[in-house]
Amino acid sequence: MLLTSSAQRSNNDDTEIHKVRCGLCGTSPIKRDRYKCLNCEGLDMCGRCFARRKESGHHKSGHAFAHFKSPGELFDRAVNDNEVTFSNLKTLYANEIHESINCNGCNRGLIKGLRFKCYSCSNYNLCQQCVDSGVTTQSHKLSHSLIVVMRRTVLQIPVEDIQISNQCGRGAF
């Protein structure tokens, strides 16, 4: 595995092509960010439709989504598309502890299991129980889309997977 800078990766769209069609605008394939609705079977959205909060006959705003930044990878794990369902994620991450993250719905001091970030409310997190019961607050409404997130935000690369290639620079400082 060769490490590349984010600037190099962002210029190469070939690595970010998801082999699925946007269920709302029809864009195919979806490039860059892909959102899979966990409430609607088989509904994928491109980043543009997600950002615009587009709806269809059966899909409404306020659903939970898995956010794929890279094809076949979710939360730094290789996944098959058919594995990414609400029930599978609930089971797989049932014991995940999100320390120092309070649930804004029930005010618990930590979130165990899936964690949901509101796409509309700044710094707003919900636990699985609050999502299941449809908790709302003064700022958070049921029509706000939720994104499932994990506590890890930095990709952990095993040392044995790192290869030193070309010299990156001469150490300007």
Automatic annotation (TrEMBL):
Pfam family, one: ZZ
MF term (GO), any: zinc ion binding
Keyword set includes Zinc-finger: yes
All copies of domain ZZ-type, residue ranges: 17-73, 98-154
GO cellular component: plasma membrane
The keyword Zinc-finger is annotated on this UniProt entry: yes
Residue ranges crossing the lipid bilayer per the database entry: none
Keywords: Calcium, Cytoplasm, Cytoskeleton, Metal-binding, Zinc, Zinc-finger
Highest taxon listed in the record's lineage: Eukaryota
InterPro entries (UniProt xref): KCMF1/Dystrophin (IPR050774), Znf_ZZ (IPR000433), Znf_ZZ_sf (IPR043145)
Cellular location(s): Cytoplasm, Cytoskeleton
Record-given protein name: ZZ-type domain-containing protein
Species the sequence originates in: Rotaria magnacalcarata
